[in-house]
């Protein structure tokens, strides 16, 4: 099925708690490679998903999976705990305390993938990419470059397929894993041949009890690296600059990256990525702004470390289509572009899009992160009007009011999108930008659903007004 031996983990017993995006693939992979697995999820939906998956498995595999609550973890090899469930802070889940009592490790699925690959005899290389923002774009771009270079590649982790849904690669293969701070907390033997920390801004502070704890979790991407490895660090924030200063002393070679700073090893300038004074690749329309130049610089630095020729890199970057919901142009109507940046779930992410446009109509709101949108004040002069949606719209409105930014309490995307188009058309503003600076769970199942709804509404607006123009 995935290239791993059906007896790879034979005789071993694993506990899996949580049956979401990471947990269910972990259960299926472990059972299909000979392990016995006990699993539980407090949510009925997760357990129903497992039951559906079990019906598709061979009987000898299905019988290795037992779904029931845990009374003890004695005798288990390890506990694979879904990333969102805390094992230390702010308060450990009871299952984590049970693992500690039993003396067994709490691991991420990425750790199990690494063990499975090495146990299978493959020398495939591992790349870990982390940071507060830009992880998904960098991961996907690097995988695209490696694919264009004809290298066997599997990308996933926090983005796309879970780590244990990825196949076994040969010695020449490369695993490109997007790593969240939650996943990095639970590594043991996994060492990344190339590791990247793009940037650090406040996020998940409750889980890590402040920026110091958050930075320490992110730094774990470099744990265990040797002189044969590569460390890549962004230089566009103070936290990363401090970490880069530490990494310059080794053991891994350290390359610095920036969206704009020519003092770094790789940097963006004039719509291209440069290595010192040499232009490596043009970034094109799919990678707008300094933040995407930083992402591209990271991917290029790692690709060159993996011996991809510069000509292949340049061609691959030029053909990169971009990611959904990350500054994606989704519709245009009568001189107004609709740009979907729904992935911007915090203020720092939204700042990267706001900085790309001289004049825009902004749609923002949802469930605000700590600090709201106060850090975005430098971009307020570019905003012709803001339409606010979601639970914390009143909080955002207060900040806008304090800085004399005109706004409308639209409440929902259904109200905001057509009103934003009308405002943009009347004021000759070229862009309607959905970059919410907030999480989406108050009104949507996730940022993807929010972005898709924005696209639908933009298409409806364009169809309606295109028809009126024709009349």
From TrEMBL:
It is found in: Cytoplasm. Keywords: ATP-binding, Cell cycle, Cell division, Cell shape, Cell wall biogenesis/degradation, Cytoplasm, Ligase, Nucleotide-binding, Peptidoglycan synthesis. It comes from the Bacteria. It catalyses: UDP-N-acetyl-alpha-D-muramoyl-L-alanine + D-glutamate + ATP = UDP-N-acetyl-alpha-D-muramoyl-L-alanyl-D-glutamate + ADP + phosphate + H(+). The keyword Cytoplasm applies. ATP binds at residues 131-137. Transmembrane segments: none annotated. Pathway: Cell wall biogenesis; peptidoglycan biosynthesis. Its EC number is 6.3.2.9. The keyword Hydrolase does not apply. It is an enzyme of class 6 (ligase). Residues 129-303 form the Mur ligase central domain. Pfam families: Mur_ligase_M. InterPro entries: Folylpolyglutamate_synth_CS, Mur-like_cat_sf, Mur_ligase_C_dom_sf, Mur_ligase_cen, MurD. Belongs to the MurCDEF family. NCBIfam families: murD. Cell wall formation. Catalyzes the addition of glutamate to the nucleotide precursor UDP-N-acetylmuramoyl-L-alanine (UMA). This is UDP-N-acetylmuramoylalanine--D-glutamate ligase. It comes from Acetobacter oryzifermentans.
């Amino acid at each position: 099925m995935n290239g791993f031996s059906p007896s790879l983990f034979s005789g071993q017993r694993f506990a899996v708690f949580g049956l979401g995006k990471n947990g269910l693939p972990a259960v299926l992979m472990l059972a299909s490679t000979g392990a016995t697995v006990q699993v539980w999820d407090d949510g009925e939906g997760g357990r129903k998903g497992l039951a559906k998956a079990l019906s598709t498995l061979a009987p000898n595999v299905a019988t290795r999976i037992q779904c029931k609550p845990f009374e003890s973890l004695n005798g288990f090899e390890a506990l694979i705990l879904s990333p969102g469930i805390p094992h230390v802070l702010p308060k450990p889940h009871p299952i984590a305390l049970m693992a500690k009592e039993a003396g067994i490790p709490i691991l991420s699925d990425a750790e199990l993938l690494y063990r499975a690959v090495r146990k299978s005899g493959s020398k495939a290389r591992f790349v870990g990419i982390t940071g507060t923002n830009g992880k998904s774009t960098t991961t996907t771009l690097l995988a695209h470059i490696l694919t264009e270079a004809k290298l066997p590649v599997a990308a996933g982790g926090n983005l796309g397929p879970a780590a244990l849904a990825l196949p076994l690669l040969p010695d020449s293969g490369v695993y490109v894993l997007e790593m969240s701070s939650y996943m990095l907390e639970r590594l043991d033997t996994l060492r990344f041949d190339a590791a990247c920390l793009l940037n650090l801004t406040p996020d998940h502070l409750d889980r890590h009890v402040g920026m110091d704890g958050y930075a320490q979790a992110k730094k774990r991407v470099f744990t265990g690296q040797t002189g044969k490895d590569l460390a890549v660090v962004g230089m566009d924030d103070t936290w990363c600059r401090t970490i880069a200063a530490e990494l310059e002393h080794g053991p891994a070679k350290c390359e610095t990256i920036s969206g704009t700073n020519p003092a770094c090893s790789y940097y963006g300038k004039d719509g291209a990525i440069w290595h010192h004074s040499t232009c490596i690749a043009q970034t094109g329309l799919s990678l707008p702004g300094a933040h995407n130049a930083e992402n591209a610089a990271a991917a290029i630095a790692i690709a060159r470390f993996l011996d991809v020729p510069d000509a292949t890199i340049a061609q691959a970057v030029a053909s990169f289509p971009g990611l959904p919901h990350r500054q994606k142009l989704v519709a245009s109507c009568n001189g107004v572009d609709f740009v979907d940046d729904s992935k911007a779930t915090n203020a720092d992410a939204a700042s990267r899009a706001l900085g790309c446009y001289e004049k825009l109509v902004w749609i923002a709101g949802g469930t605000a992160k700590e600090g709201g949108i106060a850090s975005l004040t430098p971009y307020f002069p570019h905003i012709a009007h803001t339409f606010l949606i979601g639970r914390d719209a009143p909080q955002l409105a207060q900040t806008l009011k304090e800085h004399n930014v005109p706004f409308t309490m639209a409440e929902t995307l259904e109200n905001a999108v057509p009103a934003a188009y009308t405002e943009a058309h009347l004021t000759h503003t070229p862009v309607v930008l959905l970059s919410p600076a907030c999480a989406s769970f108050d009104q949507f199942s996730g940022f993807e659903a929010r972005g898709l709804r924005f696209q639908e509404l933009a298409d409806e607006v364009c169809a309606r007004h295109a028809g009126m123009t024709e009349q």
